[in-house]
Amino acid sequence: AAEFDDDVRRFLDARPVLAHPPSRRYRLRKFMQRHRGSMLVTAAMMLGILASLGISLWQAKVAREQAQRAEAVRDFLLSIFEAAKIDLPKDARPTPDVLARAAAKKIESDTALKPDMRAEFLTSLGEIARKSDDFEGAVVFYDKALQALDSSGDVDSKQRLHVEIFRAWAFVTLGRPEETVKALQPRLAGLRAEQDANTVDALWAYAQAREDTGHVEEALALVREARAIAMRIFPVDTADSLSLSLAYG
C-alpha cells in the first residue's frame, strides 16, 4: 500500500513510477512533462537563434555575391577600356560606340561569364546604343541578352522583363509598333499583378504602340492605368510621373 501510494504521488508529480519498467526513454518523457514550460521556452530560444543564424548566413551570402558581381563589373569595364585603346591613338579618347564594339567582342570571347552577367552587360550595351540613336543596334544587343537568359532557363525574372521592355521601346522608336505589341501582350497580365516600375514602363510602351496602330482610346486608358500605378509607387515629382502626366494629362 505504501509503494502504491508512493507511485500515485510520483504519477501526479510527473515523476517516473517505480512500477513501470525502467527505461531512459520513459524517464526522459517524464522529465519533459515536469519541465514542459522551460523546455518550450528553450526550444523557442533555439529556434530564434537558428533563424537569426540562417538570416545572417543568407545576408552574408548576398553580400559576397554582390561583392563578386561588383568586382566582375569593374574588371570587365577595365578590360573594355584596354581593348578599346588598341585601335586608337594615344591622345584619343574612346567614344561610346567604340567602347560598345570592344565590349561586344569581349563578351563573345569570354566563355566564363555567367548567363545573368552576360545578359546584364549586353543590356547595358543596348542602352549605350539606344542613347546613341542606334536603335537597330540596341535591338541586336537586347536579343543577345535574352538569348543569354534563355541559356540559363530564365523565362520570367525581373531582369528578363526589364530587357523585354527595353526592346519593346526600341521597336516603338523604330516605327515597328506591331513587334512591341507582340512582345508585351503576353506579359501584361503578369506585369499588372506586380504593380512595379516594370509595369509602368511596359504599359507606357504598349500604349504608345497601340496609339501608333490607330487604337487611340485604348492607348489613353493604358496610359491612365500606368500613371495611376506610377503615382502609387513613385514620388509625385519623379520623371516617370511627370512625363506620363504631361504626355497625356
Shape: elongated
> Structural class, please?
mainly alpha
Beta fraction: under 5%
Would you tell me the overall average pLDDT? 77
Verbal overview:
This protein has 249 residues and is mainly alpha-helical. Helices cover 78% and strands 0% of the residues. It is elongated, with a radius of gyration of 31 Å. The mean pLDDT is 77.
What is this structure, in a nutshell?
The chain has 12 helices and no strands.
Features:
single chain; 249 residues; mainly alpha; 78% helix
List the helices and strands and how they pair.
Layout: H1 2-12, H2 24-34, H3 36-85, H4 96-109, H5 115-131, H6 135-151, H7 158-173, H8 177-184, H9 188-194, H10 197-212, H11 216-233, H12 239-248
Helix pairs in contact: 3-4, 4-5, 5-6, 5-7, 6-7, 7-8, 7-10, 8-10, 9-10, 10-11, 11-12
